Amino acid sequence: MKKLLFAFAAVLFSTLSYAQIEGKWKTIDDETGQAKSIVQITKAKDGKYYGKVVQLLIKPASATCTNCKDDRKNKPILGLEIIRGLVKDGNDFEDGTITDPKTGKTYKCIIKREGDKLNVRGYVGFSLIGRSQTWYKAD
């Protein structure tokens, strides 16, 4: 009976943690295929999810977000909050934004977790018009 209870608890825990995005994720450049940075995603007190660059794996052309147009303008990319305000909706995380530090553009964002991968989609208007990246769980 204890083994059955333990197995049930393990399955329940893995199911609940499957749809979580909190933690560190290795970003992959969708143009070059190279690992660019490590982004740490956390859940804030408001229940929304935010992500900031905690490590650079490739030296960027500029160490600051010179093209950003909001409060992030000229802020260092290392430590920059690039994901803001995501809300969990079932297994998806949406209604937030993601900023590309290279271009300074901010897009609407949807993130879906599949195992140790995040499918990150930034878009303007409709989710069909945008670009996607796959991020991998960082150790």
Automatic annotation (TrEMBL):
Domain of life: Bacteria
Keyword hit for Signal: yes
DUF2147 domain mapped to chain residues: 23-136
Signal peptide stretch: 1-19
Pfam families linked: DUF2147 (PF09917)
InterPro entries in UniProt: DUF2147 (IPR019223)
This protein's UniProt keywords: Signal
Protein name: Uncharacterized protein (DUF2147 family)
Organism: Frigoriflavimonas asaccharolytica
